[in-house]
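In response to reviewer comment 3 from the previous cycle, which asked for concrete evidence that the modeling workflow produces usable outputs, we include below a single protein chain processed end to end. The sequence was submitted unchanged, and the resulting C-alpha coordinates are shown without manual editing.
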Amino acid sequence: MKKVLKIENLDCANCARKLEDKLSKLKGVNECQVSFMSQKITIDVNEDMLEETLNNVKKTCKRVEPDMKILN
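The workflow returned the following C-alpha coordinates.
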Protein backbone atom coordinates (compact mmCIF):
# COMPACT_ATOMS: atom_id res chain seq x y z
CA MET A 1 0.00 0.00 0.00
CA LYS A 2 1.43 3.36 -1.03
CA LYS A 3 1.16 6.34 1.26
CA VAL A 4 2.26 9.91 0.56
CA LEU A 5 3.17 11.97 3.61
CA LYS A 6 3.50 15.73 3.30
CA ILE A 7 6.35 17.17 5.32
CA GLU A 8 7.82 20.56 6.11
CA ASN A 9 11.16 21.88 7.33
CA LEU A 10 13.31 19.23 5.69
CA ASP A 11 16.57 21.17 5.43
CA CYS A 12 18.42 19.82 2.40
CA ALA A 13 18.73 17.10 -0.24
CA ASN A 14 21.43 15.36 1.80
CA CYS A 15 19.05 15.19 4.78
CA ALA A 16 16.39 13.69 2.50
CA ARG A 17 18.84 11.01 1.32
CA LYS A 18 19.84 10.20 4.90
CA LEU A 19 16.19 9.97 5.97
CA GLU A 20 15.30 7.82 2.95
CA ASP A 21 18.12 5.42 3.81
CA LYS A 22 16.90 5.02 7.41
CA LEU A 23 13.22 4.66 6.47
CA SER A 24 13.99 2.05 3.79
CA LYS A 25 15.47 -0.21 6.46
CA LEU A 26 12.36 -0.22 8.67
CA LYS A 27 10.39 -3.44 9.07
CA GLY A 28 7.28 -3.34 6.90
CA VAL A 29 8.69 -0.83 4.40
CA ASN A 30 8.96 -2.19 0.85
CA GLU A 31 10.10 1.04 -0.80
CA CYS A 32 10.63 4.64 0.24
CA GLN A 33 11.38 7.92 -1.53
CA VAL A 34 11.97 11.22 0.23
CA SER A 35 11.81 14.35 -1.92
CA PHE A 36 13.39 17.52 -0.63
CA MET A 37 12.02 19.57 -3.53
CA SER A 38 8.38 18.53 -3.13
CA GLN A 39 8.63 18.03 0.66
CA LYS A 40 7.02 14.57 0.48
CA ILE A 41 7.72 11.05 1.63
CA THR A 42 6.31 8.35 -0.64
CA ILE A 43 6.33 5.03 1.11
CA ASP A 44 5.16 1.55 0.15
CA VAL A 45 4.27 -0.47 3.26
CA ASN A 46 2.83 -3.89 3.99
CA GLU A 47 -0.89 -3.33 4.49
CA ASP A 48 -1.11 -5.68 7.47
CA MET A 49 1.57 -3.64 9.28
CA LEU A 50 0.36 -0.18 8.23
CA GLU A 51 -0.30 1.39 11.63
CA GLU A 52 2.87 0.02 13.26
CA THR A 53 5.03 0.98 10.29
CA LEU A 54 3.69 4.54 10.10
CA ASN A 55 4.36 4.98 13.83
CA ASN A 56 7.94 3.79 13.28
CA VAL A 57 8.29 6.15 10.30
CA LYS A 58 7.25 9.10 12.48
CA LYS A 59 9.67 8.10 15.26
CA THR A 60 12.53 7.67 12.79
CA CYS A 61 11.83 11.03 11.16
CA LYS A 62 11.90 12.73 14.57
CA ARG A 63 15.21 11.05 15.43
CA VAL A 64 16.92 11.81 12.10
CA GLU A 65 15.45 15.28 11.48
CA PRO A 66 14.09 16.73 14.74
CA ASP A 67 12.88 19.99 13.15
CA MET A 68 10.94 18.29 10.35
CA LYS A 69 7.19 17.85 10.71
CA ILE A 70 4.86 15.32 9.09
CA LEU A 71 1.68 17.20 8.20
CA ASN A 72 -0.71 14.28 7.68
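The two ends are 16 Å apart (CA to CA). We consider this sufficient to address the reviewer's concern, and the full set will be provided in the supplementary archive.
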